[in-house]
Amino acid sequence: MIELEEITKVYSRGFLRRQKTIAVNNVSISIKRGKTLGLVGESGSGKSTLGRIALRLIEPSSGTVRFDGIDLTRLKGSKLRKLRPRMQILFQDPDTSLDPRMTIRECMAEPLIISNRAGPEEMEDRILGLLGQVGLQSDLIDRYPFEISGGQKQRVALARVLSLDPDFIVADEPTAALDLSVQAQVLSLIKSIQKKSNLTILFISHDLQVIEQMSDSIAVMHHGSIIEQGTPQDILHIPMEHYTRNLVAAAYGSDAWLGKIKDLRAKS
Ligand code: ADP
Ligand code: MG
Known about the structure:
Helix content is 40%, strand content 24%. It is an alpha/beta fold. The model has no long low-confidence stretch (mean pLDDT 89).
Protein backbone atom coordinates (compact mmCIF):
# COMPACT_ATOMS: atom_id res chain seq x y z
CA MET A 1 0.00 0.00 0.00
CA ILE A 2 2.66 2.52 1.10
CA GLU A 3 6.29 2.01 0.23
CA LEU A 4 9.13 4.40 0.97
CA GLU A 5 12.39 3.48 -0.69
CA GLU A 6 15.79 4.86 0.26
CA ILE A 7 14.38 8.21 1.38
CA THR A 8 16.83 10.96 2.29
CA LYS A 9 15.95 14.51 3.29
CA VAL A 10 18.54 17.23 3.74
CA TYR A 11 17.42 20.65 5.03
CA SER A 12 19.62 23.59 4.09
CA ARG A 13 19.71 26.78 6.15
CA GLY A 14 21.68 29.91 6.80
CA PHE A 15 24.12 31.89 4.68
CA LEU A 16 24.12 30.51 1.12
CA ARG A 17 22.05 27.64 2.58
CA ARG A 18 25.32 26.10 3.64
CA GLN A 19 24.16 24.65 6.95
CA LYS A 20 22.85 21.18 6.22
CA THR A 21 20.79 18.94 8.46
CA ILE A 22 20.29 15.36 7.35
CA ALA A 23 16.82 14.88 8.84
CA VAL A 24 16.17 11.51 7.17
CA ASN A 25 18.98 9.27 6.04
CA ASN A 26 18.34 6.49 3.50
CA VAL A 27 15.14 5.12 5.05
CA SER A 28 13.05 2.32 3.56
CA ILE A 29 9.73 1.28 5.12
CA SER A 30 6.49 -0.21 3.85
CA ILE A 31 3.00 -0.66 5.26
CA LYS A 32 0.42 -3.15 4.01
CA ARG A 33 -3.22 -2.15 3.60
CA GLY A 34 -5.14 -2.06 6.86
CA LYS A 35 -1.97 -2.26 8.97
CA THR A 36 -0.21 0.15 11.31
CA LEU A 37 3.49 0.83 11.31
CA GLY A 38 4.60 2.51 14.53
CA LEU A 39 7.47 4.94 14.11
CA VAL A 40 9.19 5.61 17.42
CA GLY A 41 12.19 7.77 18.30
CA GLU A 42 13.18 10.78 20.36
CA SER A 43 12.38 14.35 19.42
CA GLY A 44 14.43 15.52 16.42
CA SER A 45 15.06 12.02 15.08
CA GLY A 46 13.24 12.79 11.81
CA LYS A 47 9.82 11.18 12.38
CA SER A 48 7.65 14.11 11.30
CA THR A 49 9.83 14.76 8.26
CA LEU A 50 9.43 11.14 7.17
CA GLY A 51 5.66 11.25 7.78
CA ARG A 52 5.25 14.37 5.66
CA ILE A 53 7.35 12.84 2.89
CA ALA A 54 5.07 9.77 2.93
CA LEU A 55 2.15 12.11 2.14
CA ARG A 56 4.27 14.17 -0.22
CA LEU A 57 3.61 17.28 1.82
CA ILE A 58 7.35 17.79 1.50
CA GLU A 59 9.71 16.56 -1.19
CA PRO A 60 12.48 14.11 -0.35
CA SER A 61 16.02 15.01 -1.47
CA SER A 62 16.18 11.52 -2.93
CA GLY A 63 14.26 8.26 -2.87
CA THR A 64 10.86 7.03 -3.98
CA VAL A 65 7.38 7.10 -2.40
CA ARG A 66 4.81 4.69 -3.77
CA PHE A 67 1.13 4.79 -2.85
CA ASP A 68 -0.88 1.83 -4.10
CA GLY A 69 1.86 1.19 -6.65
CA ILE A 70 1.78 4.80 -7.94
CA ASP A 71 5.09 6.68 -7.81
CA LEU A 72 4.14 9.84 -5.87
CA THR A 73 7.54 11.44 -6.30
CA ARG A 74 6.93 11.83 -10.03
CA LEU A 75 3.27 12.85 -9.76
CA LYS A 76 2.28 16.49 -10.30
CA GLY A 77 -0.69 18.83 -10.65
CA SER A 78 -4.15 17.40 -11.06
CA LYS A 79 -3.11 13.76 -10.73
CA LEU A 80 -1.58 14.46 -7.34
CA ARG A 81 -4.58 16.58 -6.30
CA LYS A 82 -6.88 13.70 -7.13
CA LEU A 83 -4.99 11.40 -4.77
CA ARG A 84 -4.77 13.97 -1.95
CA PRO A 85 -8.07 13.15 -0.16
CA ARG A 86 -6.99 9.51 0.10
CA MET A 87 -3.94 10.50 2.18
CA GLN A 88 -4.47 12.52 5.33
CA ILE A 89 -2.57 13.71 8.37
CA LEU A 90 -3.71 13.91 11.98
CA PHE A 91 -1.62 16.34 14.02
CA GLN A 92 -0.64 16.36 17.67
CA ASP A 93 -2.37 19.65 18.28
CA PRO A 94 -5.97 19.78 17.01
CA ASP A 95 -5.78 23.57 17.11
CA THR A 96 -3.59 23.43 13.99
CA SER A 97 -6.44 21.84 12.04
CA LEU A 98 -9.41 23.66 13.62
CA ASP A 99 -9.93 27.36 12.89
CA PRO A 100 -10.86 29.07 16.21
CA ARG A 101 -13.27 31.43 14.39
CA MET A 102 -15.33 28.59 12.94
CA THR A 103 -17.99 26.53 14.70
CA ILE A 104 -17.65 22.75 14.66
CA ARG A 105 -20.36 22.72 11.97
CA GLU A 106 -18.29 25.05 9.77
CA CYS A 107 -15.03 23.19 10.48
CA MET A 108 -16.68 19.95 9.42
CA ALA A 109 -18.45 21.39 6.38
CA GLU A 110 -15.29 22.87 4.87
CA PRO A 111 -13.61 19.68 3.58
CA LEU A 112 -16.99 18.25 2.53
CA ILE A 113 -17.71 21.33 0.40
CA ILE A 114 -14.20 21.62 -1.07
CA SER A 115 -14.14 17.95 -2.06
CA ASN A 116 -17.73 17.98 -3.31
CA ARG A 117 -18.74 15.24 -0.92
CA ALA A 118 -22.00 16.75 0.34
CA GLY A 119 -24.51 19.29 -0.93
CA PRO A 120 -26.35 21.79 1.31
CA GLU A 121 -29.38 19.51 1.89
CA GLU A 122 -27.41 16.53 3.15
CA MET A 123 -24.72 18.53 4.97
CA GLU A 124 -26.24 18.44 8.46
CA ASP A 125 -26.85 14.69 8.33
CA ARG A 126 -23.36 13.99 7.04
CA ILE A 127 -21.75 16.08 9.78
CA LEU A 128 -23.84 14.51 12.54
CA GLY A 129 -23.03 11.06 11.16
CA LEU A 130 -19.31 11.79 11.21
CA LEU A 131 -19.45 13.28 14.72
CA GLY A 132 -21.32 10.17 15.86
CA GLN A 133 -18.63 7.97 14.35
CA VAL A 134 -16.03 9.57 16.61
CA GLY A 135 -18.30 9.40 19.66
CA LEU A 136 -19.40 13.05 19.81
CA GLN A 137 -22.89 14.29 20.70
CA SER A 138 -24.85 16.33 18.17
CA ASP A 139 -25.18 19.30 20.53
CA LEU A 140 -21.50 20.15 19.97
CA ILE A 141 -22.17 21.16 16.42
CA ASP A 142 -22.73 24.89 17.03
CA ARG A 143 -19.92 25.38 19.51
CA TYR A 144 -16.53 26.92 18.83
CA PRO A 145 -13.30 24.94 19.37
CA PHE A 146 -12.54 26.85 22.61
CA GLU A 147 -15.88 25.66 24.01
CA ILE A 148 -14.95 21.95 23.88
CA SER A 149 -12.23 19.87 25.57
CA GLY A 150 -8.88 18.84 24.07
CA GLY A 151 -10.07 15.27 23.61
CA GLN A 152 -13.25 16.44 21.87
CA LYS A 153 -11.20 18.71 19.60
CA GLN A 154 -8.99 15.82 18.59
CA ARG A 155 -12.14 13.79 17.85
CA VAL A 156 -13.41 16.60 15.61
CA ALA A 157 -10.01 16.69 13.85
CA LEU A 158 -10.30 12.92 13.35
CA ALA A 159 -13.87 13.26 12.02
CA ARG A 160 -12.65 15.86 9.51
CA VAL A 161 -9.93 13.51 8.32
CA LEU A 162 -12.47 10.65 8.02
CA SER A 163 -14.92 12.82 6.07
CA LEU A 164 -12.63 12.47 3.04
CA ASP A 165 -12.69 8.63 3.15
CA PRO A 166 -8.90 8.31 3.29
CA ASP A 167 -7.05 5.02 2.69
CA PHE A 168 -3.88 6.14 4.41
CA ILE A 169 -3.31 8.40 7.38
CA VAL A 170 -0.21 9.65 9.10
CA ALA A 171 -0.97 10.17 12.78
CA ASP A 172 1.83 12.42 14.09
CA GLU A 173 1.80 12.14 17.90
CA PRO A 174 -2.02 12.51 17.82
CA THR A 175 -2.54 12.00 21.55
CA ALA A 176 0.65 13.51 22.99
CA ALA A 177 -1.22 16.64 24.14
CA LEU A 178 -4.03 14.73 25.89
CA ASP A 179 -4.47 13.47 29.46
CA LEU A 180 -3.70 9.77 29.83
CA SER A 181 -7.32 8.62 30.21
CA VAL A 182 -8.46 10.69 27.23
CA GLN A 183 -5.43 9.50 25.28
CA ALA A 184 -6.47 5.88 25.81
CA GLN A 185 -10.01 6.61 24.54
CA VAL A 186 -8.77 8.34 21.40
CA LEU A 187 -6.28 5.54 20.68
CA SER A 188 -8.92 2.85 20.92
CA LEU A 189 -11.25 4.98 18.78
CA ILE A 190 -8.57 5.19 16.07
CA LYS A 191 -8.13 1.41 16.26
CA SER A 192 -11.82 0.64 15.94
CA ILE A 193 -12.21 3.03 13.00
CA GLN A 194 -9.20 1.44 11.35
CA LYS A 195 -10.81 -1.99 11.61
CA LYS A 196 -14.09 -0.81 10.11
CA SER A 197 -12.60 1.05 7.17
CA ASN A 198 -9.39 -0.92 6.60
CA LEU A 199 -7.23 2.18 7.07
CA THR A 200 -3.48 2.04 6.61
CA ILE A 201 -1.70 4.05 9.31
CA LEU A 202 1.78 5.42 9.91
CA PHE A 203 1.60 6.09 13.63
CA ILE A 204 4.30 8.41 14.98
CA SER A 205 5.13 8.70 18.66
CA HIS A 206 8.06 9.16 21.01
CA ASP A 207 6.15 6.96 23.49
CA LEU A 208 6.94 3.26 23.16
CA GLN A 209 3.91 2.19 25.21
CA VAL A 210 1.58 4.03 22.83
CA ILE A 211 3.43 2.58 19.84
CA GLU A 212 3.13 -0.96 21.24
CA GLN A 213 -0.63 -0.54 21.70
CA MET A 214 -1.22 0.70 18.17
CA SER A 215 1.23 -1.09 15.89
CA ASP A 216 1.43 -4.28 13.83
CA SER A 217 5.10 -3.57 13.31
CA ILE A 218 7.53 -1.05 14.76
CA ALA A 219 10.39 0.96 13.26
CA VAL A 220 12.87 2.64 15.59
CA MET A 221 14.27 5.92 14.30
CA HIS A 222 17.50 7.47 15.59
CA HIS A 223 19.36 10.45 14.07
CA GLY A 224 17.45 10.14 10.80
CA SER A 225 17.97 6.41 10.30
CA ILE A 226 15.80 3.38 11.01
CA ILE A 227 18.06 1.37 13.28
CA GLU A 228 15.70 -1.51 13.97
CA GLN A 229 12.43 -2.85 12.56
CA GLY A 230 10.21 -5.73 13.58
CA THR A 231 7.07 -6.96 15.30
CA PRO A 232 6.22 -5.43 18.70
CA GLN A 233 7.32 -8.78 20.19
CA ASP A 234 10.78 -8.53 18.61
CA ILE A 235 11.35 -4.89 19.41
CA LEU A 236 10.10 -4.94 22.99
CA HIS A 237 11.39 -8.29 24.14
CA ILE A 238 14.56 -8.85 22.16
CA PRO A 239 15.80 -5.40 21.14
CA MET A 240 19.07 -5.80 19.27
CA GLU A 241 20.29 -2.22 19.35
CA HIS A 242 21.62 -0.47 22.42
CA TYR A 243 19.47 2.58 21.64
CA THR A 244 16.29 0.49 21.50
CA ARG A 245 17.14 -1.18 24.80
CA ASN A 246 17.35 2.24 26.40
CA LEU A 247 13.96 3.17 24.94
CA VAL A 248 12.43 -0.04 26.30
CA ALA A 249 14.08 0.48 29.67
CA ALA A 250 12.80 4.07 29.83
CA ALA A 251 9.25 2.98 29.02
CA TYR A 252 8.97 -0.27 30.96
CA GLY A 253 11.77 -0.28 33.53
CA SER A 254 15.34 -1.44 33.06
CA ASP A 255 14.69 -5.09 33.86
CA ALA A 256 11.82 -5.55 31.43
CA TRP A 257 13.79 -6.80 28.45
CA LEU A 258 16.47 -8.53 30.51
CA GLY A 259 13.81 -10.62 32.20
CA LYS A 260 12.35 -11.54 28.84
CA ILE A 261 15.70 -12.66 27.46
CA LYS A 262 16.22 -14.86 30.53
CA ASP A 263 12.80 -16.44 29.91
CA LEU A 264 13.73 -17.18 26.32
CA ARG A 265 17.12 -18.65 27.30
CA ALA A 266 15.53 -20.82 29.97
CA LYS A 267 13.14 -22.27 27.42
CA SER A 268 15.80 -23.11 24.84
P1 ADP B 1 10.83 14.57 14.99
O1 ADP B 1 9.48 14.64 14.40
O2 ADP B 1 11.32 13.17 15.20
O3 ADP B 1 10.94 15.39 16.24
P2 ADP B 1 11.64 16.24 12.76
O4 ADP B 1 11.38 15.50 11.51
O5 ADP B 1 10.68 17.29 13.15
O6 ADP B 1 11.88 15.20 13.95
O7 ADP B 1 13.09 16.92 12.64
C1 ADP B 1 14.26 16.21 12.25
C2 ADP B 1 15.44 17.17 12.13
O8 ADP B 1 15.24 18.05 11.02
C3 ADP B 1 15.66 18.07 13.34
O9 ADP B 1 17.03 18.23 13.51
C4 ADP B 1 15.00 19.36 12.94
O10 ADP B 1 15.60 20.44 13.60
C5 ADP B 1 15.25 19.40 11.45
N1 ADP B 1 14.17 20.12 10.72
C6 ADP B 1 12.85 19.79 10.71
N2 ADP B 1 12.15 20.61 9.90
C7 ADP B 1 13.04 21.50 9.38
C8 ADP B 1 12.96 22.60 8.46
N3 ADP B 1 11.78 22.95 7.89
N4 ADP B 1 14.10 23.26 8.16
C9 ADP B 1 15.28 22.91 8.69
N5 ADP B 1 15.43 21.87 9.55
C10 ADP B 1 14.35 21.16 9.89
MG1 MG C 1 7.69 15.45 15.18
